[in-house]
Amino acid sequence: MSTVVPVTSSNMPPFLQSLEGVYQEITSPLLPFDLMTEICVKLDPHDPLSRDWRRLASKLGYDCYINFLERKESPTMCVMNGWSQKGLSIDDLKTCLLAMERCDVVRLIDEYSIST
């Protein structure tokens, strides 16, 4: 079980510092903003089977920030920003989403890739 650390400006990781404020647009090398927004619509709501942003955050090692992220307008957007800042690929993201049984989100990414 991870220890919950109160998040302050002195210990805030870079992926959260760039999102201080409400819901700022992110320039991500990973995915276009409009696709990230669609992913947020799917992953932001609580899933009783933990197939939401919490598991994605956990995969990145951000368990100790879950309580802080829950207060954000879009926790998924924060997690996706962290994903992209770690230099992980779209294939890494899709592998993680498949492990979470979120084929719907993988399909969304694939459909966007085909249409652009």
Description:
The protein has 116 residues and is mainly α. It has helices at 14-17, 33-43, 53-59, 66-70, 75-85, 90-99, 103-115. The chain is globular. The N and C termini lie far apart (42 Å). Mean pLDDT is 80; it is low at 19-25.
Percent of sequence in beta strands: under 5%
Structural class: mainly alpha
Question: How does the overall form come out from the CA principal axes?
Answer: globular
Distance between the termini: 42 Å
Number of helices: 7
Oligomer classification: single chain
Number of E-state strands:
0
Q: In percent, how helical is the residue content?
A: 40-55%
Short description, anyone?
The chain has seven helices and no strands.
List the main descriptive attributes of the protein structure presented here.
116 residues; mainly alpha; 53% helix
Helices and strands, with pairings:
Elements: H1 14-17, H2 33-43, H3 53-59, H4 66-70, H5 75-85, H6 90-99, H7 103-115
Helix pairs in contact: 2-5, 2-7
